[in-house]
Amino acid sequence: MDHYVELSYWQVALAALLIVVNGTISVVLRLRMERLLFLASVRTVVQLLLVGFVLDWVFRWDRWYIVIGLACVMTLIAGLTAVNRNARRYPGVWLDTVLSVWASSWLVTAFALFAVLQGGEKWYQPQYAIPLLGMILGNTLTGVSVGLNTFTETLVARRDRVESLLALGATSWEAARSPIQHAVRTGMIPIINAMMVVGIVSLPGMMTGQLISGMDPLQAVKYQIVIMFFIASATSLGTVSVLSLSFLRLFSRDHQFLFETVSTPPPDR
């Protein structure tokens, strides 16, 4: 691998001047986004520096239990974040979402580490395990959140149709099938759009980072291809999983739609 340009803190500060330009534009046009820009910039610096120190410590210790512990924290935060992005709640939504994100992302990451990336020294090698899980979690979170939100909103909007189908003798699956199909398609749209334009319109961050660090372009492309497949698979599994679990909670065994269990969070959330 070729030598890469090592950034110093003053070079990072030089890049931050571009944010000052954005702030100036906001002031001139009276957009009132200066505070938001400042807050977002500070959070970017603090969060990324913090994760840099954490990863540096994890890489130096290189122990399986530390990697697993960090992965558990990342997964739990991803699951809870997926719920917070939904406007509707029902009893058990937290457990359903966390379980779906956890199972789908860990299953695909395990497949990646044990079956695809077999050249590593150890199965838990932090250099591969943490970035892979992070990318998979971020995209699975989006698919699960979008799919679940679409499903509950569609059920509420189409309540009369769903209950009419059930009254006419349809099973709960027959009544919910259309909203579930719509929710799965909606949850998959972001990753499908990304796959449609990757390499033509956009170069993903991972591939760009590898190219900048000096990796052979074809190797960087191969990595990006398998990453896109991992992400698409985990997103699909997570979305279908959370919709299946929510379907079991929102419809009774007697084929009744439990509409009263679907609630709207308080306005201040």
Automatic annotation (TrEMBL):
Q: What is this protein called?
A: Iron export permease protein FetB
UniProt GO cellular component terms: plasma membrane
Could you list this entry's UniProt keywords, alphabetically sorted: Membrane, Transmembrane, Transmembrane helix
Q: Which residues cross the membrane?
A: 12-29, 36-58, 64-83, 95-116, 128-151, 187-205, 225-248
Q: Which PANTHER family match?
A: PROTEIN ALUMINUM SENSITIVE 3, UPF0014 INNER MEMBRANE PROTEIN YBBM-RELATED
User: What is the species of this protein?
Assistant: Lignipirellula cremea
Q: What subcellular locations does the record give?
A: Membrane
Pfam families the UniProt entry points to: UPF0014 (PF03649)
For this chain, the family text in UniProt reads: Belongs to the UPF0014 family.
Domain of life where this protein originates: Bacteria
The membrane topology term of the UniProt record is: Multi-pass membrane protein
